[in-house]
Amino acid sequence: MCIAASVGRGGKNLRDDVRTVQLLLNMHHAQVTGPLVADGVCGIATIALIEQFQQGVIGGNDAAGLVTPDGGNSAHGSILRALRSSMPPGFTAEKLEGILIHAAAADTARFFAPMLAAMQSASMDTALRQAHFLAQVGHESAELRYTEEIASGAAYEGRKDLGNTQTGDGVRFKGRGLMQLTGRTNYTAFGKFIGQDLLTHPQLVASDSRLAVDVATWFWTRHDLNTLADADDILTITHRVNGGENGLDDRKTKLARAKWFLMDPHPDPALPGLIQAMEAVAFEPVEHRARKRTKHRKKRHHVKTP
Predict the structure, then answer these.
(1) What angle do CA 143, 146, 148 make, to 5 degrees?
(2) CB 90: neighbour CB atoms within 10 A?
(3) Residues 6+ away with beta carbon under 8 Å from 86
(4) How many beta carbons lie within 10 A of that of residue 287, not counting itself?
(5) In angstroms, rounded to a whole number, what is the distance separating the alpha carbons of residues 297 and 289?
């Protein structure tokens, strides 16, 4: 589900819902007049583009200018389904804005490129893996708002399990990054991984957007979270990331939203049969394939005489 209530003329027009529809319409600005300013305000321009998409793209006759949530049987609900099914493929900057709907546009623009590169290098090459990663990052960073723990870090002072053995380590090595790197031991390990001295400059993990993302994918890979994502196991992933179930409901909500934007709503029904047919050919005994080729050649060269 990507909107909670109706959007458009006569709709409830909740801010997040309106902004979501505006972002979806902007992904189709080649087909409709646009793009809109995705400000969450349902004005004349937004309603006009809803009508234009419905009439010009999906061929609807109802000019009500209204979009309703998924699951409805009305023509208004079909607009949302059409917007989803015709989104550009893959993970895009526009989809990141839609998934992290409360993130500032400047933050999504800042983090998209390093995030795309880091996700690719960490083998997040399926929509399900990407969705789980974005759900966790979205919660941990409050939708890209924070790259550094708000608390001072004094609570970590003397934590030998984090490697904080020197005076001031708690504050110096407080949580930073989109998945918060915490403690001298972890800063040392990540610094070796990227080839940088983070013990001297720990604040780089928060101020450098690339490092803020890289530390998240580094953590993800070290804990083999792609495997858990493949199993769609958000509970265990949350335990690995958080150490408990803090914010689980919010993580689930973000996961559902990420899946909506990233996962194909209409997988090709012929694909399983095609794969089975290809596998059948691949594992067919060689002598069977040879007989088929010989039979085919005989038929091709047979000429009927008068």
Answers:
(1) 145
(2) 10
(3) 28, 57
(4) 8
(5) 13
